Amino acid sequence: MVRNIFSLCFMCTVRCPIKVEVENGQVKWIEGNPHVPGMEGSLCPKGVAATALLNDPERIQGPMIRVGPRGAGEWQRVSWDRALNLVSSKLQEISQKYGPRSIVWGERVNLATHVNKTFMKLLGSPNYFSHDALCKGSINTACRSLFGYTDPEIGIDYKRTKHIVLYGRNIFESLEIRPLNFLLQAIENGARLTYIDPRVTVTATKAHNYFMIRPGTDLALNYALMHVIVKEKLYDIKFVERWVEGFRELEAFIQPYTPEWAERETGIPATKIINLAREISQDKPSVIFHFGYRGASHPNEIYFRRSILMLNALMGSIEAKGGLFFKKGPKEVGGNPPRKLTEQEGLPKIGEVRFDKVGTEVFPLPDPNHGLPQVLPFAILNEDPYPIKAAIFNRFEPLLSIPDRRLTERAFEKLDLIVTIDIQWSDIAWYSDVVLPESIFLERTDCIQQVNGLKPQLFLRHQAVPPRYDTLPAPIIVKRLAEKLGFGRFFPYESMEDLVKWQLEGSGFSLEDFQQKGFVAYTDKEIWWDRENGLKLRTPSKKIEFTSSLLEKAGYQSFPPYEPVMPAPEGRYRLMVGRCAQHTHVSTQNNPYLSELVPENVLWINNREAERLGIGDGDFVEVSSSCGDACLKAYVTDLIHPEAVFMLHGFGHTSPFASRSFGKGAADAVLQENRSDNVGGSPAFDDTLVRVRRAYKR
Ligand SMILES: Nc1nc2c(c(=O)[nH]1)N[C@H]1C(S)=C(S)[C@@H](COP(=O)(O)OP(=O)(O)OC[C@H]3O[C@@H](n4cnc5c(=O)[nH]c(N)nc54)[C@H](O)[C@@H]3O)O[C@H]1N2
Ligand SMILES: Nc1nc2c(c(=O)[nH]1)N[C@H]1C(S)=C(S)[C@@H](COP(=O)(O)OP(=O)(O)OC[C@H]3O[C@@H](n4cnc5c(=O)[nH]c(N)nc54)[C@H](O)[C@@H]3O)O[C@H]1N2
Ligand code: SF4
Ligand SMILES: [Mo]
Hints:
The protein is an alpha/beta fold. It has 23 helices and 27 strands. The strands form 7 sheets. A 7-stranded mixed β-sheet has the order 5-4-17-16-15-6-7.
């Protein structure tokens, strides 16, 4: 008999609602949840490939302990008890010798993050960090500086927009299904799409306006757009007068940044900049300057992301249909959100400085809920602010996701313990001392997903089939480890169903309520705040702070002068990176289906530059930066700006147990220098200059 199970995909972080058809313990079919607007049967290639992951014999099949030298690949398969006994005794030993702060937990934010943060608190360490800064930390800081809200608290009303501007937000390839389907609906209804990228992506091919901008100069474009908008009074005067703090300061600041000035910096003709400002303001407030998904790109990132958000405020597109909105939670309609383990009484407060010094005068502004992963190698190597001796990585691949892989590897040599919770043989699993395999999303029920938005809802990832191998959900692994360490009582569940029930207590919903459609809603009406008087801004002034108290109190300017981006010296190029529709970051390159669709990455290089360097399409090239070098095939094309080269992130794996991805293509992390936007907190992933030359032998 076929059973339909509503769940959440996890082939990437987007967590699309899905319907899984199961027969005799086998997954027969997966499609977008038909009850969820925007999904309705849709699935991306990675979602489809979930069945290949489920049945992949190259997954980690049980707990593993390293028996040879680190990284040599000599493993012993052991019982869960033995693996967790080893981890707990090592953690206790290290904690006694160096203090609990010498232990870090790094993960990509997930539904069980509250479980893992609780574990670290009970351990007594301030050093939980997430991937957030690597993805979009500077966007987070920019949003807080203007609105007092973080970026996940701000939504985008794609469906009703009349004009959307995307700065390298390659939404047709680096996709999220629902936003993309809503955007397609808007375009069918006549919305316009402007796309800005030094590279012609699939999104560029769908755009009404496309600008091949000089890499790293988007901030100059935005200052010129503001110049035109203010000079020609194209802004929403009523909205700006009511809600903006610091408009006069902006007006004075942008005087020198004319479209003609921006043309020289960006390469975009002044007339096109003027036309865009005029065109988009006709559709205000139903317009979107997209503030980005990944915003870990350049050293001036926070100011660039602030400028995008300011353009929205000038258009009055904040809390406007077809623009941006503040996401509403259950409390907005008098409901109770699901509980989190972090809210329990009796958890210790930890006052110590974090390993990354977030929250001190070194990094006053980045979000301490997430921290700065890219600081980890420096903290370990320099024992600054103190020694770090153990690291637990969960659903996070530091070797490929933190810039400058060699530096990270050198640092990890100093660790006494590396534990990895993963589903497959990632490079970091291969390099660990203990590997704890998690059941994949089709095999596990997960913590409740609270989805705030115009209508607050709760979703559930529901187990579809039994685990194929000796694996467990991470919250069960953590609970068992906590028991061995003597604080198991803070994990009041035996199974994932127990944990979900505990979370739902007091919310008015039960586990059974999710069976029919996979989600429950606190209301069926959209909630919008009153634009005249009802914006609940969380800044000290209760306004949108163009002049930012957050920045200025920390000693930074709200409007620092623009610093030009110098052309790279002869023979050097700005290395840009990104994703494709067929892969998730560093996770799917070994998937049996997806590894066939896109088996390796190539280096995009402008045809005129390639000709000068004697490089032909398909030739092997050697790419080198100040911190590493790599070899991959060239893709010679006029679809990329001559100052840039581009490669997909996610390749160049070194773990031999993942045979399909082993040695395929090259890793961007080997080439990227570990340098950051120190104000906003993100590394500057697209700021490294590389040399390229033809390689005669691979
Ligand atoms: N298929 C797929 N979809 C995904 C993901 C995935 O792994 N796979 N991951 C999800 C996640 S976590 C994220 S963060 C998002 C990322 O989604 P996007 O932010 O859309 O990111 P990228 O794929 O990194 O594409 C970045 C683009 O920026 C361009 N670029 C580089 N430098 C500049 C510049 O100076 N100016 C401008 N204007 N453009 C520039 C690059 O050429 C590239 O096309 O995707 C999400 N969706
Ligand atoms: N060099 C470089 N670094 C980058 C980027 C870049 O473009 N270049 N992009 C940045 C961005 S935007 C992001 S969002 C981050 C993403 O950074 P990461 O979180 O490191 O990347 P992912 O590929 O999402 O997944 C990491 C690990 O999670 C494992 N995994 C997958 N599913 C599960 C699961 O269900 N349970 C467990 N326990 N593990 C699982 C995968 O096997 C993989 O080893 O990287 C950032 N870092
Ligand atoms: S975008 Fe694709 S891989 Fe990501 S959650 Fe949705 S269906 Fe799954
Ligand atoms: Mo990301």
